[in-house]
Design goal:
Number of helices: 7
Order of helices and strands: EHHEEEHEHEEHEHEEEHEEE
Number of strands: 14
Helix content: 10-25%
Shape: elongated
Structural class: alpha+beta
Radius of gyration: 20 Å
Strand order of the largest sheet: 1-2-3-4-5-14-6
């Protein structure tokens, strides 16, 4: 775009300015400096696009994830998220500009996107991003019949021990604040951890304003067990939190009982027929 320039965000002043910009437009109010960076070491934290007169017109932020090993090759991983472009500048190619700049900055990385809206996914696919091998399911809160008959639905408890969180965060780069809600699911010899967040939805139906919420499982330390026990977990979360809907993402194509398939939103560059775990992504900063 003419009369504008793009700059990498690398210090606290630039990051604060970019976050203030999105908050002034009532966007992603849960984003804070600490959730993106609290130890500034020169790494690129995002991009800020300005007109030559200083007016900010667009931003994007980056979240560094743990390395991923795919086919015996180790890849660095970075997650892009929280893209915002002022209304009057949309449709002028700025999204494509920022995503191409992202590819330029991280040439030897896997670049992930997990919460992309349809327009961003469309543009991403045009410049070489592909969909991950990811299967999103809406799990209904109906426990497995066998579990009901044996009175063994399982037990769900919120994790409060700091040591448990610290053990998970050891995998992550200690440069920002992480914020995730952990739960423990136990049943017989099963004992797994799951990380969750709650999404609030507002829908207009004729003249009625309907508010609902859904629980999303972001991460687990045992996907095989999660796949097997997800219906029981959905029922327990209904009892515990009143959450009527549970959404989770699986690498396996196997469909849990009492579930519906949802649109896959997970993307990665370059195109690889893989699923890169969302651990360490924007999810782990409580931003979604």
């Amino acid at each position: 775009m003419e009369n504008s320039h793009i700059k990498e965000i690398t210090n606290k002043e630039e990051l604060t300015e970019a976050i203030k910009f999105i908050h002034d437009h009532n966007y992603s109010l849960e984003t804070t400096v600490e959730k993106i960076c609290n130890r500034f070491d020169g790494r690129t934290l995002g991009l800020i696009l300005k007109k030559n007169d200083g007016e900010i017109i667009a931003t994007i932020f980056y979240y560094y994830q743990p390395e991923a090993k795919i086919n015996e090759i180790r890849y660095k991983v970075v997650n892009y998220s929280t893209i915002f472009i002022k209304d009057q500048y949309r449709g002028k190619g700025l999204l494509t500009l920022m995503l191409n700049k992202t590819k330029e900055i991280f040439p030897n990385y896997l670049i992930t996107g997990y919460t992309l809206d349809p327009k961003v996914r469309h543009i991403s696919s045009k410049i070489g991003f592909g969909y991950m091998e990811n299967y999103r399911r809406l799990i209904l809160p109906i426990p497995k019949l066998q579990s009901i008959m044996k009175f063994k639905i399982g037990k769900l408890s919120k994790v409060s021990e700091p040591a448990v969180y610290s053990e998970i965060y050891k995998e992550l780069d200690d440069y920002r604040k992480y914020e995730i809600i952990l739960w423990r699911y136990q049943k017989n010899d099963i004992d797994i951890l799951i990380g969750t967040t709650i999404i609030k939805h507002k829908r207009n139906l004729f003249k009625l304003k309907i508010k609902t919420s859904s629980l999303i499982i972001l991460w687990t330390n045992n996907e095989k067990v999660l796949l097997k026990e997800s219906s029981n977990m959905a029922f327990l979360f209904l009892l515990e939190l009143g959450s009527k809907f549970l959404t989770t993402d699986f690498e396996s194509k196997k469909k849990p009982l009492f579930s519906f398939g949802l649109e896959n939103q997970f993307m990665v560059f370059p195109k690889l027929k893989v699923r890169v775990s969302p651990i360490g992504s924007e999810f782990f900063s409580g931003i979604i």
